[in-house]
C-alpha cells in the first residue's frame, strides 16, 4: 500500500524538504511540522520551507523556529513532501524545490488534487492532511510523540473548525482521542487557534459591528469596514477576516455582506449565505465568484454606491425566490 | 452493576418523571430529553419537568415541545430521574416530585454530588451527563436513534464547550463519533448552540466592546455594561453572558473584568483570570466568591467608583505578585 511505500522512502532517503501552499493555515503548518519532527526523530535531515512570513499564531508548534523562508538556490533534496496542496502552482516560490528532487510525495485531501507527485497519497474524505499523516505514521509503526500529537491536533482542529464542520467523521474523532491521550494541552492549543484576539481586533470588531444594518425583514445583514477604522485601531485586513460571521450568525439572517473600502472608488465585498441564496451568482453579476454559500467580488463606487447596488440586486432576488 | 439495575427499573416501572437543575443548560436539556425519548420508545409514560421558562435555543431537540412547567400537585411517579444535579436544592420547585416517588435515580457528573438518590450513577470523570446516559443506554442494549443522538450530542458538546475544555477525553470523542454516525446534522446543532446570536446581542456587543479599557500593561481588561445599553439594544442581561470572554481572550490579558450597572449605587462584577491571579480572592474582598479563574461580587458605588476600587486592589495585587 502507498503508506508503506512512503515509509520505505523515508527509511531509504536521507535529505528531505517539506513544503505546503502559500498563506499557510493550521492544517499546513501542523502537518508540515508533524512530518518534520518525525523525520528528525529518525535522524534524517529535513528542511521546512515557506514562501512568506510565518503566521505567528502557530509559534507554539514544536519545530516552528526551524522553518525557513524559501529562496531560489541550487540545493537539492532526495525527497520533497508537498502537503495540503491541490496543485503545484499553489506552492508559490517553493515550487522551485520540486525541480531538483528525486521523489516528490504529494499528501493532500483536496478533491481537485492534480496528482502531481511521484507518489500521491490523496484522500478527499479526510478532514485534514493531519488526519492522513496520522494514519501514515500509524501504518508505519511510528510512535506519536507529544510534540507530533500537538502538530496533528492543530491540523485537524483547524480544518474542522473545532470539529464542527461536516468534514468531521468518527474516524477524525477517534484520531483526536488518541492524540489527546498523549497529554497535550489541547484546551490551550484550541484557544490559541480560535480564541486569542489582539487588542486591535477587539477595537476593530467594536467599530465594524456598530455599522450593522439589517434589510428585508432581517434576512440581509451588512457590515462596513473602512480604511479609517483600520488606521484608528492600528489593525490590518487580516484582523477582520472572521467578521462576516458576526453578520451571518444573527438568527434570521440568510445573506451576510461585508463591504471593505479599498479606496474612494472601489470596495471589496464578501458574501455569505445560510440556506437558499446562491451568493456565487450574486458575486458573478459584479465579475466575482466563489461558492454557493461563500463568495466575493470587487464593486466600483464608494460604500454608499456599493450598498445600493447590492440592495437593488438582493431586492429582485428576494422578490423572485420567496 | 448499577447501569443494569437502572435498566431493570426502566423495564419494571411504567410512570416516570425526569427533572434537572434550575436554569437548565445544554447538558440538562439534552440528557433529560434523551431519557424521555428512550422511555417513550419503550412504551413508557414519562413527563419532563422544568421550573421556569424553557431556553428556546434548545427547541430543535426531539421532545422539547412536551416539556412541562412544574406545578405542585399530588401526582406521583413510580420513578424519578434526577439529571445533572449535585444536590436536591438545585431542583427548585421540581424537588417536590421526589416526595411521591418509589425510586429516585440520580445521574450526575458533579464531584460534589450528595448521592441523594435510591440509585446513584455519579461519575465525576464524565464530561457531561450525556456521556453517562450514552453508556447507560449501551450497557442495556438500547438502540441510539438519530433523535436520541441529537440530544446526547447537545449534552456533550455543551458541557465540553465544543470539545475544547479539558474534561474532554478520548472516551468522550469516541462516544461523539458514534453519535455523529447516526447522521445527525451536528454542524447545525453546534451552530445553534454556540454561534446563533440575536440582533440585540450583536448591538449590545458593539456597545460593550466600545468601552474596552486595558490597564497594567494590558494585563487587565475592563468592559462596562449599563442599564441604558440594555434598553437601547432591547436586550437583557442573558444576552451579555459571554461578553467577559471578549476581554479575557485578548492575548496579553490575565484578568478580565465586566462591570454591570445594577443601579446608580451598585454594580455586579464578573472576574476571570487565565493563569496566575486568584480572582476568587479578589471577589471575596468585596463579599463575593467563586473559583480561582472565575468569580463575582457586588460592589456598592457607581461605575467609576467600582472601577477605581477594583483597580486599587489590582494595583497592589500586581505589585505583590510580579
UniProtKB/TrEMBL annotation, chains A, B:
The lineage of its organism: Bacteria, Bacillati, Bacillota, Clostridia, Eubacteriales. Residues 16-156 form the DDH domain. One of its GO terms (molecular function) is nucleic acid binding. Gene3D superfamilies: 3.10.310.30, inorganic pyrophosphatase (n-terminal core) (3.90.1640.10). It comes from the Bacteria. Pfam families: DHH, DHHA1. Coiled coil: none annotated. This is 1-pyrroline-5-carboxylate dehydrogenase. InterPro entries: DDH_dom, DHH_sf, DHHA1_dom, Oligoribo/pAp-PDE_c-di-AMP_PDE. Residues 233-317 form the DHHA1 domain.
